[in-house]
Amino acid sequence: MSQNISIKAAINTFSVASAATKYASVRNILRLLCLAVLFLSASTVFGQEFTGRVTDPSGAAVSKAKVTVTNQDTGVAVSTATTGSGDYTVPYLRPGLYALTAEAQGFSQEARTQITLQVGQTAVINFTLKVGSISETVTVQSDEALLAGSGDVGEVVENTRVTELPLNAGNAMTLATLSAGTSLYADPKYQRPFDDIQADLSINGGGAGNSQILLDGVSNEAAHGDAYNGTNGQIGYIPPTEAVGEFKIITNPYSAEFGRASGGVIDMTLKNGTNTVHGSVYEFARRTFLDANSWANNFSGNPKTSQRRDQYGAELDGPVVFPKLYNGRDKTFFLLQFENFTNTDPGTLIVSVPQPEWFNGDFSKLTYYDVASKSYKPEIIYDPLTLHDNGSGVLVRDPFPGNIIPASRINPVAQKILSFYPSPNLPSTAGLNTWVSNYQTPQPLVDVYRNVLAKIDQNISSKDRLTLRYGYWERSETQNYNGIPGAAAQGEYPHGERSNTFATDWVHTFTPNLLFDFRASVIVRGNIAETGPANFDITSLGLPPSLVSELGIFANHFPSIGASEFTTLGNSGGQLTIGNSLAMLPSVTWVKGKHTIHAGIDWRILQDSTRGVQGGMSLSTDRSWTQANYNTGDPASGNSIASFLLGTANSGSINISPNIFFSQHYYAPFVQDDWKVTPRLTLNLGIRYDLNEPPVDRHNRADYGFDTEVVNPVNSQIDQSALPNGPVKGGMTFVGVNGNPRAFYSATKTDIQPRFGFAFAVDDRTVLHGGFGVMYRNPNPGPNQYGFSSTTSYVGSNDGGKTPIPQSVSNPYPTVIQPTGSSLGYLTALGQGPYFINPHYRTPQFQTFSVGMQHRFLKNDTLEINYVGTRTYHNDSNDNINRIAATAYANCNILLGGDPSRCDSAAGSYVKNPFYQAPAFQGTGYYTASTIQAIQLTRPFPEFTDIQEYQLNNGRSWYNAMQATAMHQWNKSLTLHATYTWSKTMDSGGYADQIYRIPSRNIDSLDATHAVTLSGVWLLPVGRGQYFLGNMNRVLDEVIGGWEFGSLYTYRSGFPWQLNGSTQYVSNAWVPRQADPTIANSIRGVKPCAAQYVQQNDGSYVLTPIQSNCGGSYNFIVNPRYGAEQNVIYSGIRNPGTWDWDINLAKSFAIYGRLHLQLRLEAFNVPNHPIFAGSYDNGPLDAGFGTINKTSGQTNQPRQAQLGAKFLW
């Protein structure tokens, strides 16, 4: 193994940046930085702009009128002239407060002031000039622009809500959910600034992680998960809340400037420095005494776990002034921000652990809960080496006498591994098996996070403006996931990240109606993950040194051991990932007559490298080796710990993955024309072309495809007489070999994207808008390095699971398969299950469309209602091209008149293995087993197991919704906002059952029918300068003035309940959600009426109730072996919905001049409402089938509160 990297050393020093220097290409990073300086461009929202028309009193157009737009905070002014049609557009502006003037010879000058321009807004300001002297000025004060001239559907979260709504951990991005159609699926515990919630954010059914993320109009997407994993990447930089100006969510983008996404666009803008110095110093403190206890702690009678969080920082912005040296007012402005976040979150983890006496083989007290009789009954342990025919052709096992495994049968390696389990510390729960949820441990989450930001805005001249920005953050996190202390722990030990972001923007004005814009962003992000303690001596478990020597960098980690129904032991090692991204875009804006034309080319370069890919050694076991019937499970027999203690496992692997370095290039020219057809009608017409090249590995470490026609050279090593269909065919191919291209699929060259939008002003208060657009999201290449990685699978049986290989856990991997790259050619992966990417993969297409109405009832009351639809075509899907013949399966399917013994125990079900002892199959079960299941030889390529082909483009999804948004503002002291979304998302593609070719079509697993958000900020209009008692004295004002209240409420209905794939859904099993009296602390939402086919002593199969006979009427039937998996479109059952209510109460105190102090109390989950483990149990054999058990703990956080203090000026 050639992976020589000390992950632990890198973590100890938290040296992501130095690791990037060491393992990523310094030369390439420098090239990216140089390109950024040279090109100064990026994927961008074309800023904000004013547009409108200048007319005379008769309505005739006034051409060549001078329109001046002045930022009232910075004094920076930009001028343009109207076209022959009287139209003007001033693009590339920053959000802020503006004044506009229009003047022409023979007319009085008209001025508009106090106009707020929001992020991404096209504000329509029309002028009607009066006849008179140009020296005369008519001034109109306004704080509202007319409704935008665009068909886009979107939402602006203004600065008031960003800074004054309660934000748990201060991540402004979470407020994206205040836009209708936007869903955030992230665990409430993990919505902090560094948690990459973009990966869990979906807009209008476009899929989580598929939206475009911008910061100040510049691409803000890191390469991680981009070039290699196919999402739109992790977020490069999240600014502290104090530095955020506002942000916009465009849920239906129709402008051609947007692309490479399936969903929406989120553009966050930073504050801009002004001619007045502003700033803040703040601290938010969270302590244990402010919090409620968790439900699990209250249930167990335990006190609150300790918590301490401090989030403090400072923000400063203003003009750059050096007394007597440089006065930057009206020219040079700065923004500086620092934030530190240290946190220990309370957490309680409840898991299931074995009883200590089991480790010595004593299962005499083992029982299970029988739902039908509502009593505990013995659970019997059977000896897997006693399998015999009962005389009727049925294979049965004998139980261990007294339910005790003899000491001579206990495997010492397994016993040593199991000794790392702690002893139970919780009593059993009535109605559940006695070992369920019997161990509780604190699960604190320890995080340290720092964030630094600097920005300079330079008004070089009336024709040139320049912005430079640098952002940096780092964090380290430690948390236990499996509840196991010591070497067998699993979690973050620690997880470290570091990100550097550079961005720049240069706007040049050639003429008043021709402007040029260059923007760029460079993001270098590193990620170190260690999933468990290192420096463990794995030989101390009794494993042979010959095996340990093959584990390479994973030899110092406890192996990952999974026992069904119990928490996992061990971990999978660590890895280091570095991602580099450069996004550039030169663009031009030309105002010609009634047309505003934007054109540019979006160009990105992405690199993603990984070293020390997580893998290592794993073993998994379940009850099947110790259950009564070797091929049919039942709750009355078998135990996974007993199975493992006998030295047997069911599955496992040693995975060795290569170091990777992928690069990807993206080019997208576009043209957008905003055409003011009439003063009331604007059309948005655009077209975009994407060339999204596939990722290429620097060292050609990738598969290209599977050759289905070639005769495999292994034929010379195998017994041809045992092959029913003659010589075997098929083999893996590789990129850059034998004339294959370096990319593992061909670039799609037909991704043309038309865009159309319209906005029609019915009157000054009502606008109809809508549109249609096509986008192509970033391709998802998936796994494609099988020859350069290797998987050595655990072989626990040579007869299809009837009997185990005794004591195989002592040396579970006698031969470890090492990666061979492309050197073996068609001999690669023999006896294994390779995978590859469809060489003809097409980029998934996303269509978005809407029609709606926006109406302003009063000056500050608006309502918007839209019908929104999206369609996604060519979605990723996969298929097994090496399927066992369906006719062979049907011959063993009792539902089709078959007999399972024909496949696994009857004469002829096992035949001579043609691959036995063939050298090319070493390290696999094909090499060690002298016989093989006859049905395995019905595969088209029997020398392999399953062969998965990914990215088959057979998937499709569709989304339909009614979305409503209401907004109320009163005198700048009250802001109320509400949204409602009623939607449905459906998916199709791939197969519910690949062998029987049953296609998949169902309601999306994250479909939520209803979603509601309510938010508000109310500065009580009482006190000095306010609406009420505005002249009160200062002393009284310090008591009753300056109070503010903020509130945020969200609700989302439950997701569809997902049925276990091996279970048939017969009829409606929904029941009203209620407590189940038979199972303590449980919530039932599904009828438990399930049955399975049980083989009788005479060999027949009888449908038998599993837990409750329900009068012989069953809602669920467990599939018999070799049965087909059903496609369940919708069971009619939904898991419980979720809701949350957070508040903020603040009081401001005037200190001196503009300096004031704000004290805050923020509370999250105010009613202390627990949301329990999100899904009803879907295992029919489980005692809690159809219920959610509260003892598993809550998925949200208990009520938490924090105190805050801000000095602001």
TrEMBL record:
Question: Which UniProt keyword terms apply here?
Answer: Cell outer membrane, Membrane, Transmembrane, Transmembrane beta strand, Transport
Q: Its principal location?
A: membrane
What is the annotated localization of this protein?
A: Cell outer membrane
Its GO biological process annotations read: siderophore transmembrane transport
Record-annotated TonB-dependent transporter Oar-like beta-barrel domain positions: 270-1202
The record describes its membrane topology as: Multi-pass membrane protein
Membrane as a keyword of this entry, yes or no, is yes
Cellular-component GO terms for this entry: cell outer membrane
Domain of life from the UniProt record: Bacteria
Any one GO MF annotation of this record:
siderophore uptake transmembrane transporter activity
Q: Does the keyword Transport apply?
A: yes
Protein name per UniProt: TonB-dependent transporter Oar-like beta-barrel domain-containing protein
